[in-house]
């Protein structure tokens, strides 16, 4: 039996872990035993526990409860906690054979460092993504994780190309033997587990969620927006431009705007926006600011919106899966295929660019090609992990 420790911490990781847990249960329960460690990076019920219930993920075996703090403190607390869990399991004679990490958060970085230092193999899901913007904490996290991982599962061919440019050889195997267990690093183009999830939960969401009725929304007749990146929330000018654009779109087009608000944005809103914009927000009945949505609610909204406007990586992708065009509220994206296909436009936090992108996407006919795999990335990932332990 292969014992894997899955690390989750931030909201999107809990959602991603659902795809792998489901595939283990369905196909590999006789070969893989999964334990889940929640770092506690996200801790509000609507950022964390709601997803376990809704997506049927087993409750975490460990919870480090690190909560929010500076990057240094948050990361170091997780390193310490993960190291303890791995070492204790060894002492008890029931060691973990590998650690599964997702994405690019401080939880991903810290768990990777802890595991690599005590020679526990690391499998990185969502490897190879780059924004080439080193001011993003996520960019630093993902570069370090890729260097230290045994298998790098990359979701797209752009991810594969990025890794090749960083010295991973063309067939995906780095020539140097880098690990104490004599294994070479391997890159696998796996497809995207978020696509697996969206396909799996797409129709369930429509049956189970009543968010459209609750918010009185009609099909393709509202905008879905999310804002949480520090580059937007912590910068007054950016946040003001985004909110002015949202308010003007809703006024000019007489269209509803749904904004599930991340706690980071919620806490900072009244400090960052001038009274004039805050008044416009409270006067505007079409701007519906709601608490963070559950995954099923989010899927429903992404499926039915006319346009999505977001600075989230995951929401960009999910709107693409559901054929909804997307205005990207960041200066760049890791999901360049979405932009190349014409389904997304990078507008940053620039008022004029946001307004132009909205008009262009509403007017043009967008074609959505298949970019993110076949909806079975999880099975491929688990097969590769099993093979890793079979190879001598
Ligand atoms: C983190 C990830 C980001 C990911 C995002 C998804 C890093 C560096 N960033 O960003 O890549 O896209 O999660 O949501 O790891 N807060 C709460 N309740 C919670 C969680 C957070 O109130 O349950 C507040 C805290 O005030 C905290 C702030 O949100 O200071 C930010 O949380 P943090 O975990 O630092 O990063 P995110 O912005 O969520």
Describe it for me?
- With 392 residues, the protein is of the alpha/beta class.
- Helix content is 49%, strand content 16%.
- The protein has 17 helices and 14 strands.
- It has helices at 11-28, 49-55, 71-91, 106-117, 137-148, 157-165, 193-208, 211-214, 230-233, 236-253, 263-272, 275-283, 295-304, 313-321, 336-340, 351-363, 377-390, and strands at residues 2-8, 32-38, 62-63, 98-102, 122-125, 151-154, 173-177, 184-189, 222-226, 256-260, 287-290, 307-310, 326-328, 344-346.
- The strands form 2 sheets. The chain has an 8-stranded mixed beta sheet, with helices on both faces. A 6-stranded parallel beta sheet has the order 11-10-9-12-13-14, with helices on both faces.
- Helix 1 crosses helix 7 (193-208) and helix 1 (11-28) packs across helix 17 (377-390).
- It is globular and about 65 Å long.
- It starts with a strand and ends with a helix.
- The mean pLDDT is 94.
- Uridine-diphosphate-N-acetylglucosamine (UD1) is lined by residues 10-12, 41-44, 47, 68, 104-106, 137-138, 228, 263-264, 267.
Helix-strand blueprint:
Blueprint: E1 2-8, H1 11-28, E2 32-38, H2 49-55, E3 62-63, H3 71-91, E4 98-102, H4 106-117, E5 122-125, H5 137-148, E6 151-154, H6 157-165, E7 173-177, E8 184-189, H7 193-208, H8 211-214, E9 222-226, H9 230-233, H10 236-253, E10 256-260, H11 263-272, H12 275-283, E11 287-290, H13 295-304, E12 307-310, H14 313-321, E13 326-328, H15 336-340, E14 344-346, H16 351-363, H17 377-390
Parallel strand pairs: 1-2, 1-4, 2-3, 4-5, 5-6, 6-8, 9-10, 9-12, 10-11, 12-13, 13-14
Antiparallel strand pairs: 7-8
